[in-house]
Amino acid sequence: MLQLHNITHRYGSLAVLQGIDLEVREGEILCLLGPSGCGKTTLLRIIAGLERPSGGDVRLGGRSIIDVPVHRRDFGLMFQDFALFPHMNVADNVAFGLRMRQIPAAERQERVAEALSLVGLSEYARRDVSQLSGGERQRVALARSLAPRPRLLMLDEPMGSLDAALRDRLVVELREIVKSIGLTAIYVTHDQQEAYAVADRIGVMNAGRIEQLDTPQALYCCPRTVFVARFLGLTNIIPVDQAADGHVTTPLGTFALSAPADAVLLHPDSLSLGAQDGALSVEGRVIECTFQGAHYRLQVRHESGIELTLPHPVRAGFTPGVGQRVWVQINPDGLIPLRAGLSG
Question: What distance in Å separates the CA atoms of residue 171 and residue 318, rounded to the nearest whole number?
Answer without folding.
Answer: 38
